[in-house]
Design brief:
alpha+beta; 4-stranded antiparallel sheet; two-stranded antiparallel sheet; 13 helices; 4Fe-4S dicluster domain-containing protein
C-alpha cells in the first residue's frame, strides 16, 4: 500500500521558517503549493490575537498545553533499561498493558500488528529530522483512545473546543509516555508517538487495532464516542496478541448521512468520494481549506466532531453493524435529528470562560 510523507501535512509545512533549508527544499519540490501556503501563513496563528475566538486570558491555556507537549515529546524515544527483557507470555503482557492503560484513564485500548503502510515515508515536523526516511523495526503497536468531553466539543468552534482537544492530546501523550517508559523498564524497545512527534498515521493504526473505522471526515470514528476522541500510539518490539478490526458499517452510514460535509465551515469535506487509495475510493479532505479555517477561527474548529451522530451515542442495530442496512441508518439519523437537529450546539460559555 502507498505510504504518506509527513512533510506534506499542514502542521509540518507551516512550521518551516522562510529561508530555512526545509522551506527551500519543500517548496522547490512543491512549487504548486507555495502561493496558497503563503496566504495561509499570513493569517494569525491559532489561539492568537486577531482570530475570531481570541481571549487574552484563556487562549494561552491551549498554547500552554501544546508548548508543554513540545517540551516532552523529545522523550518519546529512550534507551532500553535492561539488557535482557523480562520473560512474559504474550497473552499475559497484552493483558497487563491493557489493564495499565485503562488505569491511566484511556477509554479503549487495542493491539495492532504494525504494518509498513502505517508509517510515514519521511519525517517532517521537527527541523532536526526533516527529510529523514522513516524506519521502525517494532512489530506491534498499542493504540488507545482518550474521550473528549461532550459538552466542551459541542461548543465548537469556540475556545472551549481547543482547550479540550489540547487536553486530549495531553492525556494521550502522558499515557503513552508511561506505557513506553514501563516497557523499557521491562527490557523492551518502546516508542511513544504523540503530538508533534509521530512516525506513523495514528488513525490507521487505531483502525487496525479494532478501535473504530475511518469515514467521510478522515478521522477515526468509534462506537462509543464517534470521532470525539484523541489517539495515543506506543510501538514496541515486545510480542503481543493483536486484536481484530471491528467494522460497523461506517462507510455505508457516511454515504447516507453527510452531516459533517454540510456543516463544515471551510468546505473541506467532499460530498462525493474524490480519491482512491490502492484502488479503493474514499473521501479526501481538503486539508488546506480545513487548516485555513482554523487560522481564522483561532481554534481547531471541531464542528465535524460535534456534528457526527456517533459523537452522541446513537442506537446500533441488533446485529451491531449498519453495513447494508439503509433503513437502520435512516432511523438512527431520524433519532439524532429529533434530539439535536443538525447538530448539538451549546451557545452558553463554560464557567471556565465566563
Amino acid at each position: 500500500m502507498r505510504r504518506f510523507d509527513e512533510r506534506d501535512i499542514p502542521f509540518a509545512r507551516f512550521a518551516y521558517e522562510p529561508d530555512s533549508s526545509a522551506y527551500e527544499d519543500y517548496y522547490t519540490r512543491h512549487p504548486e503549493r507555495l502561493e496558497r501556503d503563503l496566504h495561509i501563513r499570513s493569517l494569525p496563528q491559532l489561539c492568537s490575537e486577531g482570530t475570531m475566538t481570541w481571549n487574552p486570558l484563556m487562549s494561552p491555556a491551549a498554547d500552554a498545553i501544546f508548548k508543554f507537549l513540545g517540551d516532552i515529546n523529545t522523550l518519546s524515544e529512550q534507551p532500553v533499561l535492561k539488557e535482557v527483557p523480562l520473560e512474559a507470555a504474550p497473552e499475559l503482557l497484552t493483558r497487563k498493558i491493557k489493564a495499565l492503560a485503562k488505569h491511566l484513564g484511556v477509554q479503549d485500548v487495542g493491539i495492532a500488528r504494525l504494518k509498513d503502510e502505517h508509517l510515514y515515508t519521511h519525517r517532517g515536523r521537527k527541523p532536526e529530522h526533516y527529510g529523514e526516511p522513516v524506519h521502525l523495526d517494532h512489530g506491534f503497536a498499542i493504540a488507545f483512545t482518550i474521550e473528549m468531553d461532550e459538552d466542551m466539543i459541542d461548543r465548537s468552534p469556540q475556545l472551549e473546543e481547543i482547550i479540550e482537544t489540547s487536553t486530549g492530546y495531553l492525556k494521550a501523550g502522558i499515557g503513552g509516555m508511561i506505557l513506553s517508559y514501563w516497557l523499557r523498564e521491562l527490557g523492551y524497545e518502546a516508542r511513544n508517538h504523540m503530538d508533534g512527534n509521530y512516525l506513523l498515521i495514528a488513525p490507521l493504526v487505531a483502525q487496525e487495532a479494532g478501535l473504530g473505522e475511518i469515514g467521510r471526515m478522515g478521522l477515526l470514528t468509534t462506537r462509543k464516542s464517534g470521532p470525539r476522541v484523541r489517539l495515543g500510539i506506543v510501538t514496541t518490539n515486545a510480542v503481543l496478541i493483536p486484536d481484530v478490526r471491528d467494522p460497523f458499517g461506517l462507510m455505508d452510514f457516511c454515504e447516507i448521512c453527510g452531516k459533517c460535509q454540510k456543516t463544515c465551515p471551510g468546505k473541506a469535506i467532499p460530498d462525493e468520494k474524490n480519491a482512491f487509495h490502492d484502488g479503493i475510493p474514499y473521501w479526501k479532505i481538503d486539508h488546506e481549506n480545513c487548516y485555513e479555517r482554523w487560522r481564522s477561527l483561532g481554534t481547531d474548529c471541531g464542528i465535524c466532531l460535534s456534528t457526527c451522530p456517533f459523537s452522541h451515542k446513537i442506537t446500533f442495530p441488533e446485529s451491531g453493524t449498519f453495513e447494508g442496512l439503509p433503513e437502520a441508518i435512516q432511523q438512527a439519523l431520524a433519532e439524532s435529528e429529533e434530539k439535536y437537529g443538525m447538530r448539538r450546539y451549546i451557545r452558553e460559555p463554560l464557567d471556565l470562560m465566563k
